[in-house]
Predict the structure.
Amino acid sequence: MNCATGTGPGQEYHRDPLSSVPAVPAALADFAVSSSPVAGAPSPPRVFSEATTVARAQDGDTDAFEQLVRSYEADLFRLGFRMLSDRGEAQDAVQDTFVLAWRRLPSLLDPEAFRAWIYQLMTRRCLNILRVRVRRHTSVSSGPDFELEARPVPAGSTTDPAATAQTNAMQDCLTAVLATLPPDQRACWVLHEMHELTYPAIAYAIGVPVSTVRGRIARARLQLAKGMTAWR
Amino acid sequence: MALTGTTPTPPSQTDPNRLGCGRSIDDVWARVDLPPDPHEQACPDCQAARHDLGDLAAATRGVVAADKADPALRLNPGAITGILEIARAEVRRGRRIPMEQPRPGAAGDELTVSEQTLANLIRRTSDEIDGLEARRSAVALSKYDPLNEGAPGPETRQPGTLAAPAEITVDLRISVAPNAAIRALTRLLRDRVRTAIDREVGITATVINITVLDIHHV
């Protein structure tokens, strides 16, 4: 199933070429431009498309798999943190997801679908953790690890202290209200609005029809807007 | 709460995703970063909804930007190392390919090379050639053909003589750069792969099937 939603950040695969090259027939020499033009000079690393990197990881190439891990770990960590409100659990979920991905990679039919597929593994991992958490803490507030402390200010942010305080307060409010949404709604909202996955990609990730995704996002948006209005 | 609407007895009272004026919240959300259209300029429902949704959109952008800038929302190096150690420990070696051409009915010591070793070699060799990216590959022992006179059949080998190198078929999938001269490129690739397998492993790639799967843009 191909529901790739575009390429993620930095999804390129670098590999140092080998130095030994068999002799090339003169008629074909125009194509053999991989050796360094200057003896001893370091060759620039090859850069591969994500589909190639995924295919090579499917064939057991651990260098290619490492490149995928480095390309996606931050995205998956952010998803995990917004789903679980806990850095430690988010980190564990990302690790588990990548190990599962390595084991299941050979069965991924379309390497172009990797982004939607890895999001599927991570989203389902988070939803499973939340289900277990609900069973364990039915009567106890587990106290999600809301990050209300000072955070790095992204470039381009205003420097007006009052406006900054207002902006931070709105973001804290969104964080708090988001954590109160039912997990399925929260997953749909976070995947769409914070990770720019399309509705079909979210439907694939969660395993529900697109119409269900659309409804959950609409309900989440309504709840979040109401929550923020109440806060204001 | 503005998103519930201010217009009395709206036609869609039961639809929580529709404002009193009849517009859907989806539509307002889709336009929330654009200037208000004529209807939105005149409609109190839409104005209030735009205000609430505008705050939500701004807060969402802010949280995303803060999360992306937060170094604590990255795997630490130890966690990445842990993942890669598990991956390396679980590398799938694949099938073992005998390095000597098997003879029907023959038994004895067997020297093999793993499919994974051959796949690594094929990738390394392919990476020497610009204009193509090697993707997946598969190798299989070529079928013994008793009608092939050159084949080292059971009758032609005397005990104690050296066994013939195994003959394998390689299926290799590649992606090529735009404007690549595919025929010449694949000819070069076949030549390089055949030479590397012969030189580094000592077996013979009698057939190298190449499938061009894609044109890549890097």
In short: The two ends of chain A are 44 Å apart (CA to CA). Chain A touches chain B through 74 residues (CB under 8 Å).
